[in-house]
């Protein structure tokens, strides 16, 4: 009788096949993202052909088709980076809180960023892109700390149910405050209401360029937190026993999520449910290893937001639905399904 050691060759092909399968899924998502980018550029109120696309990419805007492509290219880029940011932020928040219902919208982070922007626009008359970004990040951070503090009170600490309830109550309160600030200001009411729906329409490279350093910083912090999130998933006591500084690890990972969420909200408005749906779908493909889950969530979020944008253009022609409406129609039933299936258990 031969006893195999834990590191015997018989176990190695299983790990190799697992990595190969994940790599293939990752490649498939990248290909899907490229196809969606091409679809986003070609589909809209006016369909365009490849001649218009190639001419627009070369810098020409002589025809209506070429002009349409010139407008859609920055819109597509914004949908990609905002979707990646929100998908990644949702995964980080679920890992930090060990809450399957965690999402920038459900936990009130989006609405905190929105309230901060609205207040500074109405009372301090900010206008620069950099001011919008810093304000949204500060609002998102304060809201995250507030919700986590409220959810941690009482017996049992920050349970998934308490965090979800605290986040929902905070979102409602902040939304009411936004309305109270905007109502007396007819001069900004129209623009604020349109921005609050959440969308990528009207994107320009001038709006996108200032957000790239913040998104890059958030992306880097988030990806470097993958191993720490794997440790946190084992529980605070076991993570501390493995030498992890639990509070520091949780704070650094949360900082990455706040940077991503606040920046995306500043440029697109509060887009809900995307950070909830994407992590759960990606776990079905790659499991719970955050070293794989984080890049999958970034690409998956970009794919989902691009898909929502394309769907919004098709179903309401010649008008269009903002992506915030489409993601809400997708995410609300998904949220109900998770509540019924998970019963708000910890991850």
From TrEMBL:
Pfam family, one: FecCD
Subcellular location(s) per record: Cell membrane
Topology class, membrane: Multi-pass membrane protein
Keyword entries, A-Z: Cell membrane, Membrane, Transmembrane, Transmembrane helix, Transport
Keyword Iron in record: no
Transmembrane segments: 21-41, 76-93, 105-126, 132-151, 163-183, 208-226, 247-272, 292-311, 323-340
InterPro entries, A to Z: ABC_BtuC-like, ABC_transptr_permease_BtuC
Entry's family note: Belongs to the binding-protein-dependent transport system permease family. FecCD subfamily.
Descriptive protein name: Iron complex transport system permease protein
Organism: Rhizobium viscosum (Arthrobacter viscosus)
């Amino acid at each position: 009788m031969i006893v195999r050691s834990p590191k015997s060759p018989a176990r190695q092909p299983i790990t190799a096949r697992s990595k190969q399968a994940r790599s293939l899924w990752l490649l498939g998502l990248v290909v899907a993202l490229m196809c969606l980018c091409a679809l986003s550029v070609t589909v809209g109120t006016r369909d365009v052909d490849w001649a218009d696309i190639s001419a627009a990419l070369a810098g020409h805007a002589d025809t209506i088709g070429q002009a349409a492509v010139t407008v859609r290219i920055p819109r597509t880029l914004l949908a990609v980076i905002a979707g990646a940011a929100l998908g990644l932020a949702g995964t980080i928040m679920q890992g930090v809180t060990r809450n399957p219902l965690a999402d920038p919208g459900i936990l009130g982070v989006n609405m905190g960023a929105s309230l901060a922007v609205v207040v500074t626009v109405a009372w301090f008359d900010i206008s620069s892109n950099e001011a919008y970004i810093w304000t949204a990040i500060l609002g998102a951070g304060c809201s995250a700390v507030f919700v986590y503090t409220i959810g941690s009170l009482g017996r049992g600490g920050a349970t998934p149910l308490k965090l979800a309830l605290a986040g929902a109550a905070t979102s409602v309160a902040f939304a009411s405050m936004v309305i109270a600030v905007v109502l007396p200001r007819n001069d900004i009411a129209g623009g604020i209401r349109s921005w609050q729906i959440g969308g990528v329409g009207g994107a320009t490279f001038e709006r996108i360029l200032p957000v790239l350093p913040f998104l890059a910083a958030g992306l880097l912090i988030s990806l470097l937190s993958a191993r720490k999130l794997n440790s946190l998933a084992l529980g605070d006591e076991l993570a501390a026993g493995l030498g992890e500084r639990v509070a520091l690890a949780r704070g650094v990972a949360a900082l990455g999520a706040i940077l991503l969420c606040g920046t995306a909200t500043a440029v697109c408005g509060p887009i809900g449910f995307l950070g909830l749906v994407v992590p759960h779908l990606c776990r079905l493909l790659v499991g719970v290893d955050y070293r794989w889950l984080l890049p999958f969530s970034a690409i998956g979020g970009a794919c989902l937001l691009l898909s929502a944008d394309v769907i919004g253009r098709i179903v309401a022609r010649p008008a269009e639905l903002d992506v915030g409406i489409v993601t809400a129609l997708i995410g609300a039933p998904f949220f109900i399904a998770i509540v019924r299936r998970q019963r708000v258990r910890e991850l």
